[in-house]
Structures are given as C-alpha cells and as structure tokens.
Amino acid sequence: MKNLILSHKKTAAAALVLIILIIAMTVFVQRKRSIEDMRAADTMAALNRADEIEAWGEVMYSRIENISIDFPSTVTDVQVKEGERITLNQPLVIIDLTEYNGSIEKLNKQMIANQLALDSAPQDISALQADISRMQNEIARKTDEYNNDTAADIKLLKNSMELALKELEDAKIDFQNYQSLYDEGAVSKTILNQYETVLNQRQKAVDDLDASIHKTKTALKDELNMLDISLKSKQIQLSQLRDGNSTNVAMQESSVSTTEVDLNIMRGKLEKDYIKDNQIVSNVKNGIVKNIAVINGSRLGVQGVPTSILQIIDADSITVSAEVYEEFIGSVQVGDTVKIVPASSPDISLQGTVTHIPDLAVEKDGRRVVRIIINPDDPNNILKPGFTADVYFRR
Q1: Which of 63, 69, 61, 62 is nearest to 274 (CA)?
Q2: Strands of the chain, DSSP E
Q3: pLDDT at 45
Q4: Cα–Cα distance list, 382 to 37, 299, 347 (Å)
Q5: End-to-end CA distance of the chain
Q6: Closest of 307, 306, 311 to residue 282, by C-alpha
C-alpha cells in the first residue's frame, strides 16, 4: 500500500513538472514574439523617420533561351558547367551528327533520283502523233479520191468505161442496121447473129467495167473505214498515253515535292543560331548556363521528340525584385533611382531604376509586400541570378 502511494506521488510530481515547463515555454514564446513585434515596430518607426526605405531583393532575369535538339544525334562532350558565364558562339556541347548527316545524304540522293525519274516519266508520243498525222492526211486524200473518182485505178476504169460505152453504142447501131437488112432479106441470119454477138460482148464489157468500178469504190470505202477505225484507235491510244503521262508526271512530281519538303525540314533542323557544325554554341552575348540536362553519351531527338540540352539565362536581362512593404509603396515611382547592395559584396553599391510596380501585393511573414522590378546598372556582372541584395529607395 505504501509503495502504491509513493508510486502515485512520483507520477503526479512528474506531471506537475511537465505542466510547469509547458507554461514556461508558452510564456517565453509569447514574450519573444512580443519583443520581435516591438523590434519590428521600432524598425518601421525608424524607417518612417529615415530618408530611405530598405527592402529585401532577389536577383532575377526576364529572358532565358531553351536549347533543344529534335533530330537523332549523340552527345560526345559537355564543355560547360552549371552557372558558368558564357559568351556569344562559345561551344557548349559537342554532338555526333554522323547518323543524321547520313540520313540527309540518303534523302538528297533520293531527291536526285526522283528528279531524274521525273524527266523520264512521260512516254515518248512523238512517233504515235506522227503516225496519226500521216493517217489523217491519207484519209483526207482517199476521201477526196472516193468522192471525186480521182483514184488512179478508178480513173483508168472510167476511161475504159468511156471507150466501152462508145463501142457499145457503135455495136448497137451496127446491129440495128443489120437487123433492118436481115428483115429486108439482104443479109443472112448468120451475119445478123455475128453482130448480135458483138453487141452482147460490148454490153458485157460495159457491165464488167461498171462492176469493177463499183468494186473498186467499195474497196476504197472499206479502206477508208479501216483507216478511220485505225485512226480512232491510235487517237484513243494517244489520249491514254497522255493521261498516263499526266498521272505518272503528277505522281513523280508529288514524290519529288514530298522528298524536297522532307529534305528541307531535315536541313532546317540544323539551321539554328545555336548549332555550328557539330557544336551547340551560345546564342546569347552575355549568358549564364542553367539546367544542363545531358551528359556524355546522351541520345538526342529520339523519334523526333525534342530533347532539352540546357538553358541560357540572358545576363543582360537581369533584374532585381525588391519586396517593399505596402505602407511604403506610395513613396516609390516608376523611373526612381535606387541603390542596390549585393549580399555577396556588401562593400559595393550599384544603381538601378524602377521599371515596374505591380498593382498586386502578396503576403510574406504576416506582412503585405509589393514586389517591384528594378533594372540594375551592373557593367561588371556583380549581380547573379538567385542571389540577394538590399535595395534602398529614397523617400
């Protein structure tokens, strides 16, 4: 029983000590905060009385170049380090372009081959055109011969027909004369039959010639029809060849155009101001290296997806963002000259000009501040991104 009572007393004592410590810590923290508030109030009062407003500032920048590669290549050497200051055209990264240059050369050869194929794409139609022209002339000539009976064989038959008709007419007269003599009994039947035979022969000769003329004209007409059919066939063939040539030329021109576009795109990827031969160089006159994303052996531009190489801060765009308490912002105007004291070089003082005062305040440590932008006069590049500085404004 006695031990139980002693045990409870010890526990109660420990709890009491803990409570006392908690109370003491609470009082200490509240007193510390009160002291800090008093100091802040004193500082504000001192600032209100001073000729200058002091503000905390951070060195920033307004321009940065993102360097990336979107074609197959390999990093062979990274020649700069993070935060290094660089100048225009200074080599930054060495890359192996063997694979990409090989692809360009292959595409260039394909382009030349396509252009040569374009020249030979249309089939030669000159012989067919000459044949068609010859046939058209022949058809025109034979049509004239058919219509006007001017063909040599028809003319010969016509001449023969004229002679045969004359002979037939003479035979008819002779027969009629002898028929009269026979009727009068002056000549025999035998003699009359002889003249009748001659008449029949002359008539047969005329009939044969007429049949020959008709047959010759029919043959000439058939020849004209065959020539016309052959001409139409050749004209269709010519039309098909022309259409085929147009299609072949169009397809080949499309192939040439596509290859040319691809080639220009591939060449264009190398025509950037930060690519010189097989080097990635600075395209900024006064830069600072940031975010190096590659190492030796890194593969770039896989499947045409851009690979980030690094970033270059334009050191000529460096600004200072100064946090001015809202109660003092009314004393600051755009164009005001300020004094900048870098935290890294407290014995140096630079001048700067207020370039922007936002219509926006933000909360920081329970206070409201306005982050104004200052353009520093820093010819010796003392200010560096991410560093801090004290900024003094005239009241």
Answers
A1: 69
A2: 52-61, 64-69, 73-78, 85-87, 91-96, 275-276, 279-281, 286-290, 299-300, 307-314, 318-325, 337-342, 350-356, 362-364, 367-377, 388-394
A3: 43
A4: 35, 36, 12
A5: 78
A6: 311
334, 289, 336, 293: which is closest to 315 by C-alpha?
Answer: 289
**pLDDT reported for residue 25:** 66
Mean pLDDT for 12-17 is: 60
Alpha-carbon distances, residue 18 vs 11, 22, 23, 345 (angstroms): 11, 6, 9, 48
Strand duo 299-300 + 52-61: pairing: unpaired
**Rounded Cα distance, 92 and 77, in Å:** 9
Q: Is 50 exceeded by the pLDDT of residue 81?
A: yes
Distances (CA, A) of 245 to 68, 110, 133, 167, 395: 45, 21, 20, 64, 85
Paired residues of 305 in beta bridges: none
What residues are paired with 222 via a beta bridge? none
Closest CA to 274 of 48, 59, 105, 80: 80
Distance, CA of 110 to CA of 104 (rounded, Å): 10
pTM of the full predicted structure? 0.61
Question: By CB neighbour count within 10 A (0-12 exposed, 13-18 middle, 19+ buried), where does 47 fall?
Answer: middle
- Ramachandran class of 277: left when φ > 0, alpha when ψ lies in -120 to 50, beta otherwise: left
Alpha helices in 91-188 (DSSP H): 98-120, 126-148, 152-184
Q: From its phi and psi, is residue 346 left (phi > 0), alpha (psi between -120 and 50) or beta?
A: alpha
Q: Contact 132/234 with Cβ under 8 angstroms?
A: yes
Contact assessment for residue 29 and residue 36, using Cβ atoms and an 8 Å cutoff:
no
Q: How far is CA 307 from CA 68, 90, 215, 293, 324, in A?
A: 5, 20, 89, 9, 40
Tell me what the mean pLDDT of segment 379-389 comes to. Answer: 95
The single-letter DSSP state of residue 187 is: S
Whether residue 229 has pLDDT greater than 70:
yes
Per DSSP, the three-state class of 91 is strand
